[in-house]
Design goal:
homotetramer, alpha/beta, Alpha-Beta Plaits, TIM Barrel, 2 domains, eight-stranded parallel sheet, four-stranded antiparallel sheet, 14 strands, 33% helix
């Protein structure tokens, strides 16, 4: 930790800062600059004490150098983490393709779409049974019935599935059926939920919040990890900016930035970032180009009948097209779609 | 609802849109423009069907005119709502001053600060017993013990208190002690929590999410209201932007904008927007100037010992100064601090 | 244009709006909704009159349907524009690779780097002679001498070059030497400069402003086009958001969105969006995945000596690597790097 | 300057950084931390060398401590600057009220409005003669004729006027007529223009760019100051965020933040931030509450006829109301509207 003093900090202000640092049991190192003093602090444990120093007179700024996340940090875990979900692997250097309807609407709809994406090469199924909706008047999902339908779809296709857990009340029922639990973007800082999901014994797909910094995203992963779940995959699905030409601004820059500081896998949701049918494939390929470990894509065979976000779903044939181009893009990058053979 | 057609929409595309509108049981009105067709839709119920039309070929854009929120809208409730919390009133035209520590740390600390703000004219007490924290390693609050301390502080000062409910598990215990329940900004779209808090039978202070639009904010209020809580006060505490010279960007523009479309009261949290000791009072006075119905302010008598956000707390004497200037600012605007006499 | 009336608009307010519409010589079409009136306006010329109606009492909102840009719109020019710069083509379906130093620093440095990128397959050279810098104390470029150096590099390598025009005073000198004029992102709404550059008789590469909407970007292109320059290429180089893990947030979503509404080519600048050496290639490949018509990349063989932005330059060998992967990614998308043979 | 090394930086990487620091002629101070090395650099001149060090292997981050602006910094000029424009003073502790039409449309319109605002207590006149407009098809101002009209209005009312300079070509003519030159927000980083305006010998009102950080804003002020103009007033007029309920998000937090680091006066433009008639006064009073040194307000007596931004203009009677409430708000803050008597 570094404490930058005001240009005009007085002797007694400096002394008070030094005393406080020593009061915490740390060491203070004076680094006189051209026109101001910086005090290096060593022996400190982390983020906690930063702000108390900042409120002292004569202190301009306190700079935290050590990252506040530990388990999610690449500094303490240099190898990429590989997250296993049934026979699917995230982070092994290849690309995972997750596809399915935004919402589970009926047995027929889900089986139809599950078949469609399985036969076109998806490795994992997605579908919402519990749907958090901005409006209390919107369709809120089929609940446990939706989970049963997804289970049936898994039986028929052999694909494991990921589905959202919306609250602590439903963790156990969702964990009973699902292969991977999804934390929605609105819940990325629902810490009570994160703690409980961390203990549920299942791999987790955690969506980045709409205006979460990279550090906050990793702190939320840390909540999961410190509570027992080491199998965390991050999902970028667009952030909120001034832009109004897409539903959200897909922030592909977070992919290389996350990989720089963390060992966790990261995938892209091009459907929710795009929000528009015609731009899903461009967003998806951009995500692959940025180095994402996978994609999670809305597919619907009758989008005009969808109860949720039909405007952003790919048709099965468009999903085929995405698969074809993705294979080529991955090959150019030295990757494949699907789990690495040698890792099996 | 208005459906804007592409410049080059074909006859058959137009026909298909018309058929779908009629299929929903609505009426379609053709409005030929200089170079494109707009179709007015009447008889529709609301937001639900918007997106299905948007996915039809030949449709450029669908414009929703009717607001998706009903109970929170000024169109259905033209008078300002007045929210009563014990003998305190929000939205009666006057200004409510809430003050107290960010976190309840101990009986002594809380009673000291409660006395300090009560004697200086605060009408309501604030203090966190359950603290959502970005880091799993940070102080997370005293829990129910914190609520007991706040209750003691209420007994001593006569001031009702507001405190955050972090999850559904603790609603009943918080509601047992507190006069007003706070929804934190990270939970503004935790719909399970909103539904449950809406049924708790207490007035609610709902903080606007860090990147929530006005419409989303009112939709979350709608979740509370449709579940039974009509006593909702909104709180602006800063939004996330590119700016880095304050903890958050206090969006005072939301005050007049909300009052234009909604009847709900809105207050300002200058401590969390500012994040810096020296700018709390400027943020507070800006909020009053914008027309806010109240302020909620962190006060601490020993900020350098605070377990949470000490750097943004006002000292008791600074709170006195805020009270003094606020009285003058309110008077200039034809308001007072405190409940309107005639309304008692 | 559509005029949405307040729910409680009075008869006389409605009448006044109707009169004003007719006063402009337009037609007013009444579209009664479930609970409010919308007035369709036809015969209007464009954006100008929008705001006068919005200031009338009883008007909730005025919705402009016709886009304010004309020449840049795909509605009036359905085919993709192909912009020719010497023997290089933007927008023909293939991908153009522009590379070179951020700033021209000396004859030796520029010739060395120009050779390096030419021999590795770049089709066009970049390099700044006039450098707009945030600080008045930073290196501001070599000026005309820089242009002479770039001309020499063109002679040696055969590659045409693009360079920034910073002000009207230097348009003629830059246009004398350069093959393509660049408008910097800080000048995207410098309308005096746009008008003058539009008349300079050279193709233009216009960088999107750091917080420019798509509509504003196309309005600025419109300034160039209405003044005579039809050869406009847009460049996305990252936008400003709350994110702090990259220099800017590369907004790849603008690529498909722009192509939906405009016929102009668009390229990506991954160096300025990334700002960090290690993430330039991921940003570049994301741009290609999103469908960009080209890339413009900083390359420097001695980045630690660069006078400008050395931290974001690729080394020549890294540029080779980018070229290799890009070829594969383009092939997967049915494209090539370089001008389409059939178009020659 | 502080150089933070990677956790795993090697001996030779550290040595290379040290050598480079010494190569610049500076001193390197080693500050070993719990788990990583920080190197303090002293003797450096400023911002220039930061990035070269950042591109070295083993370097995690370089932290610049000394602010890159010098003349605008409070560290080198501790007293508030007072900017004198004729008999008006900005920054003397009181509040300056500037009012007038957005655009000069005609002699009659301007004289009418100038009379209206002068008789209601404005101390300075505003009005655009050269109007930068997003659309090339919009009204672009009367040019020099507009300046003559403003001069006439000054003669009649005795109020000095401020008006925008859009480009270097018109600096001399604007400076010939105007009392204060305005730099528009789109030109805040038009460095050629800033340099030239800095030499024009007139006080300058510089609008903050729509997404300019505080540091960038002060760097642009620095451009003016280093070129000779010490009389710079900053103007906050709203920034661009995700918010869509106002034209821009008025960032009142910049007022106390700027005053913390700079001695320059800052005023608020509530008309351009609000964009809506009904919210101009709330924005204005918020600006005063935040501590602004003045306001610049659009006033129009026939807003429905205005050629520019009529929807955001106050009527003369509303301006009276703003003046009345402002007087009270200022009094509560220990200020007055108008120049301090003792300073005359």
């Amino acid at each position: 930790m570094l404490v930058i003093m005001d240009l005009n900090a007085t002797e007694s202000e400096i002394k008070k800062v030094e005393e406080r640092i020593k009061g915490f049991g740390y060491q203070a190192h004076f680094i006189p600059g051209r026109d101001r003093l910086t005090i290096g602090v060593t022996g400190n444990r982390g983020v906690e004490e930063r702000l108390y120093l900042e409120s002292l007179p004569g202190v301009l700024q306190v700079i935290q150098i050590t990252k506040p996340y530990k388990l999610a940090s690449r500094e303490t875990h240099q190898e990429n983490s590989v997250v296993q979900v049934d026979n699917v692997q995230f982070g092994d250097g290849n690309v995972v393709m997750i596809a399915g309807p935004c919402a589970v609407e009926s047995m027929e709809q889900t089986l139809r779409i599950a078949d469609a994406v399985a036969s076109r090469g998806a490795q994992m199924l997605r579908g919402g049974a519990y749907k958090p909706r901005t409006s209390p008047y919107s369709f809120q999902g089929l609940g446990e019935k939706g989970l049963e339908i997804l289970t049936k779809a898994r039986e028929k296709t052999g694909l494991p599935f990921v589905t959202e857990v919306q609250d602590t009340e439903t963790i156990s029922v969702v964990a009973h059926y699902a292969d991977m639990l999804q934390v929605g973007m609105r819940n990325m800082q629902n810490f009570t939920l994160l703690k409980a999901i961390g203990k549920a014994g299942k791999p987790v797909l955690m969506k980045r919040g709409m205006s979460a910094t990279l550090e906050e995203t990793l702190m939320s992963a840390e909540y999961l990890m410190v509570n027992g779940c080491r199998d965390v995959v991050i999902c970028e699905r667009g952030v909120r900016t001034f832009g109004n030409h897409a539903r959200n601004t897909l922030d592909i820059s977070v992919v290389p930035a996350l990989k720089q500081v963390s060992h966790l896998p990261i995938i892209i949701d091009p459907s929710h970032s795009s929000g528009k049918h015609y731009s899903v494939i461009p967003h998806a390929l951009a995500g692959l180009g940025a180095g994402a470990d996978g994609l999670i894509v809305d597919v619907h065979d009758r989008p005009e009948e969808a109860l949720c976000d039909g405007h952003q779903a790919l048709l099965p044939d468009e999903f085929s097209q995405l698969m074809d181009v993705s294979k080529g893009v991955c090959a150019a990058m030295g990757k494949e779609i699907g789990t690495k053979k040698k890792n099996k």
